[in-house]
Specification:
By secondary structure, the chain is mostly beta strands. Helix content is 2%, strand content 61%. It has 2 domains: 177 residues, AttH-like fold (Beta Barrel), CATH 2.40.370; 145 residues.
Length: 338
C-alpha cells in the first residue's frame, strides 16, 4: 500500500466529513525525573469542538489529568483548551505548550468514573513547555487508496515518529526539567472512537535512540491488522506480525503485564523478537457515543526487549506507553482474550 507524506502534512488538512478529526499527540518519559505523560489535541471543526487531553504521570505515583471539549470554529491550527502546538521545522522540531488546571489523582483508576473523579479530587495549576525533536524518520502517511471500510473510519492519514522531549513541566509549586524520549503522531480524516472493535498501541523508546511502535487493530468480524515499525538508529523496518498476550488485573480487568512477539523481514531474512511490558501506572479513560461505551486505558510502561535493536547490546530496557482501547459490552472489554 503506497502512502504519501510531505512536509506540508505537518500542517492542517481539509475535512468535509461530519466526524472529521485532525489530531496531534505527543508522549514522553524521563526516567531520571521519574516523570512521563502525553498531550493530545484533536480538532473536530464540523462538530464545533476539540478534544483536549493532558496526562502527567508524576514521580510520587499520582496522575495529573485534564480532558475538555473546548469550542472551535475552524481547523486553522492546534490551539484550544490551553493546549497549543507549533511546527518549527517539519519532522525536525515541534513545540508543545499547556497552561491550565489538572485534577490530581492519588488513585488514577478513579477516572473509570470521571464525574466522581473530577468532583472529589483536588486541582492544581500546571504548565507544560516541551520542545520535541525528531529521533527517527517519520513512519506512515496518507494511503493512495482508502484502507477503511464505511463506518470504521479512524484515520485516513496517519504518521508517527520517535522523538526527544526537552523543557519543563510545572504542577503546583513543583517544576521538573525534562530530558526524555517519546513518540508523536499526527492523523486526519473521519474518526469515531467506536470504530475499532479493540486495539493495542505500544510505543517504546530505548536510551540509545532506538525504539519501536507495535499495533494490533481488531475488527468485530475479522482478525484486522497487526504491524508497526522498528528503528535501529539508522533505518525503519516494517513489522510484519504481532502476537500479544496480556495479564489482566482487578474486577475491571486492566492490563498490567504483557508480552508481544513480533516479526520483521520476510523469508530467510525474517527476525522474531519478544517484548515484555510492565505497567508502572495506569489511568482508564472513557468515551461515549450513540449509546456505545469505549474504554481507553493508558499505561505508563517499562519495556524489556530480548535483544537490542541497535549496536548497543545493553539497550534492552526502555520506556513508553501501552494504550489499550476496547469497546465495553456487558460490562467487559471485548479484547479480553488477547
Amino acid at each position: 500500500m503506497k502512502v504519501r507524506l510531505e512536509p506540508s502534512d505537518e500542517y492542517m488538512h481539509p475535512g468535509p466529513e461530519p466526524t472529521f478529526n485532525e489530531s496531534m499527540y505527543f508522549n514522553f518519559h524521563d526516567p531520571a525525573a521519574g516523570l512521563g505523560g502525553f498531550v493530545r489535541l484533536g480538532n473536530r471543526p464540523n462538530e464545533g469542538h476539540a478534544e483536549m487531553t493532558v496526562c502527567l504521570y508524576l514521580p510520587d505515583g499520582r496522575v495529573g489529568f485534564m480532558f475538555q471539549r473546548p469550542g472551535i470554529t475552524s481547523n486553522d491550527g492546534f490551539d484550544a483548551g490551553g493546549v497549543r502546538f507549533e511546527v518549527v521545522e517539519p519532522f525536525e522540531e515541534l513545540r508543545v505548550h499547556y497552561a491550565g488546571k489538572l485534577v490530581l489523582l492519588d488513585e488514577p483508576l478513579d477516572m473509570a468514573e470521571p464525574r466522581t473523579a473530577f468532583t472529589e479530587n483536588p486541582y492544581e495549576r500546571a504548565e507544560v513547555h516541551l520542545t520535541y525533536t525528531g529521533v527517527s524518520a517519520p513512519f506512515g502517511g496518507e494511503p493512495e487508496e482508502s484502507h477503511e471500510r464505511p463506518g470504521e473510519e479512524f484515520a485516513r492519514g496517519h504518521y508517527e515518529q520517535l522523538v526527544r522531549a526537552a523543557g519543563t513541566v510545572t504542577v503546583g509549586d513543583r517544576t521538573w526539567t525534562v530530558d526524555g524520549l517519546g513518540l508523536r503522531d499526527h492523523s486526519w480524516g473521519p474518526r469515531t472512537w467506536q470504530a475499532p472493535w479493540y486495539y493495542r498501541w505500544l510505543t517504546v523508546n530505548f536510551a540509545d535512540g532506538t525504539g519501536m511502535m507495535l499495533s494490533r487493530i481488531a475488527r468485530a468480524d475479522s482478525d484486522g491488522t497487526r504491524g508497526g515499525f522498528t528503528w535501529d538508529g539508522e533505518r525503519i523496518e516494517l513489522v510484519q506480525d504481532v502476537r500479544l498476550s496480556t495479564e489482566w488485573e482487578g474486577p475491571d480487568r486492566h492490563h498490567r503485564t504483557l508480552e508481544a512477539t513480533f516479526t520483521t523481514g520476510r523469508g530467510d531474512d525474517a527476525t522474531t523478537r519478544t517484548l515484555r511490558g510492565e505497567v508502572l501506572n495506569l489511568i482508564p479513560l472513557r468515551n461515549r457515543r450513540d449509546g456505545r461505551v469505549t474504554r481507553i486505558s493508558e499505561g505508563l510502561t517499562r519495556w524489556t526487549l530480548d535483544r537490542a535493536l541497535g549496536t548497543d547490546p545493553e539497550a534492552t530496557v526502555g520506556h513508553g506507553l501501552s494504550e489499550y482501547l476496547d469497546q465495553i459490552v456487558d460490562g467487559a472489554p471485548v479484547g479480553i482474550d488477547e
